[in-house]
């Protein structure tokens, strides 16, 4: 079973996403409510992938991503950004950093596990 870490400051989104991924039967889900907590969990638990919310207080998703990239224990974990922002300029910004993918909120909870699976297959090739 693969492990995924959800880093999102909104508890209802964390819980809904966790349920969707656990129902698929493919994922063991870890959660963190802040970028700082996510960094610690990612380093200690070594998940197969990270779902990272872009808009968070204190440390936003892009800052969290940069810190994940800078740490030897977490730099090779594929990161998928979750964002409500899908403006072309922001999409370009996301393309410039080495994220595995960007999934736009609101996402379809029933296809999320499959979307993540496709991203990880692409990341390996």
Automatic annotation (TrEMBL):
Pfam families: Response_reg
Tagged with keyword Repressor: no
GO biological process, one term: phosphorelay signal transduction system
Domain named Response regulatory: residues: 3-120
Key words, A-Z: Phosphoprotein
Modified residues (4-aspartylphosphate): 53
Protein name stated in the entry: Response regulator receiver protein
Lineage, broadest ranks: Bacteria, Bacillati, Cyanobacteriota, Cyanophyceae, Chroococcidiopsidales
């Amino acid at each position: 079973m693969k492990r995924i870490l959800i880093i999102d400051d909104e508890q209802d989104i964390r819980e809904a996403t966790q349920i969707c991924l656990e129902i698929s039967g493919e994922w063991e889900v870890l959660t963190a409510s802040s970028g700082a907590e996510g960094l610690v969990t990612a380093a200690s638990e070594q998940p197969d992938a990270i779902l990272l919310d872009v808009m968070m207080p204190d440390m936003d998703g892009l800052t969290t991503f940069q810190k994940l990239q800078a740490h030897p224990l977490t730099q090779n974990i594929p990161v998928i950004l979750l964002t409500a922002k899908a403006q072309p300029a922001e999409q370009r910004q996301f393309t410039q950093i080495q994220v595995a993918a960007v999934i736009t909120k609101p996402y379809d909870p029933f296809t999320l596990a499959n979307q993540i699976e496709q991203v990880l297959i692409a990341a390996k090739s």
